Please model this.
Amino acid sequence: MGAARRLYRFLLSAVVGRLLFTETADEFGESDSEDMRIISRLYQILDRKTPYAAGLEHVVSSVVEHYSRPNLKLLTASILSSLVNETALQFDGMCRSEQAGECRRMASRWPVGNSERIMLRLRFAISNSHRLYELKPLTVDAIIRAILFEIDRVGPRVNRPTVLTEVAYAAFSTGNQIRLRTVNDKLTAVADSPGFWALTRYYESRLLVAAGQFAEVEALVAEFHETAAGVTKSDPAYAPTQFLLRHLTERSEITQDYAGNEAGAMGLAAEAMQRGDWRQAVELNEQAAEGESPGAMRSCLYGLAETARLESGMLETSSALDACLDRLAANNLFAARSLLPLEALLIHLFAKAVHIYELGDTAAPVARVSDMLGEFRGGSWRWACTRKIRVSE
Model:
């Protein structure tokens, strides 16, 4: 039955994709991902509470400069259409009807259909990405941002809570705290079933973890468990609610395995961490990681190894810190975002980089960690951390 269900979903996905003439985001090449990176950066101009006219003009000129070619993928064109139409609304708010009209004429040149069709295409683009953390997060960010604009333009046939649930998971899976905050606020406003409400409590708890409000986190997680336990199969949010329940259960089991398996490598590593034997903790965590399959737990163990290096004083030069950042990128630390407080680790690495620079070493790690931290908070640190940033002194 499971194989038949997977085959059915594959065929349904293929048919929908054929009808929409689109692709999933994980089928994008490097040039397509670069398109998405630029679009995501342009959206940041619109994200200002009061965008400047010069900023809006920069959006228009950038679109004209980079996207006038005829071979744009339909998904890219759909996101550009949303971007330019939103820019037109901003110009309307400034009483600049001429610039707004120019934007709408530009958007009409892309044959992307109405808002409902654009919305369906955007949702399909990330629907098959079961491991969203492997995508370039700026690609997902651009799709999320376009959906957030289009969802206010679609008709009543579109189930807004369902769409927002999909988008919330995409933001959560790519560590995009800024988008998750926006999406969860919207989902909270339209939640019309116990399942949807339970999801808002879970995502709110994840946002408060990043803010360090752990007492509130425990209360929200307890509320999520209590509400989710009563969600029935007739609830439209039953499937995502049960998925997150399993996620929390697995996370709890992983934590117990790490701390409680005294005979295993993880148990020995946990003991070393608890007694502050950092150098042994480095070795044991890496040994445990080598025995894991690629995924969240493997990335988590490598992250703990780097944490132990930081605590042991093994990262006292720019070259040592650079090697640490290379290892974090190579071992895909982002996959462990549900198991480790990544932001806290990056902040400590940033403080170490600043300290090294103040002692007279190179400033390159400062720029690199700063870029990683900023990109992480915007949902895209994994890809930034692979870049070697050179800083002239």
Residues 1-21, 379-393 have pLDDT under 50 and may be disordered. The chain has three domains: 12-158, 174-231, 253-384. Residues 174-231 form one domain.
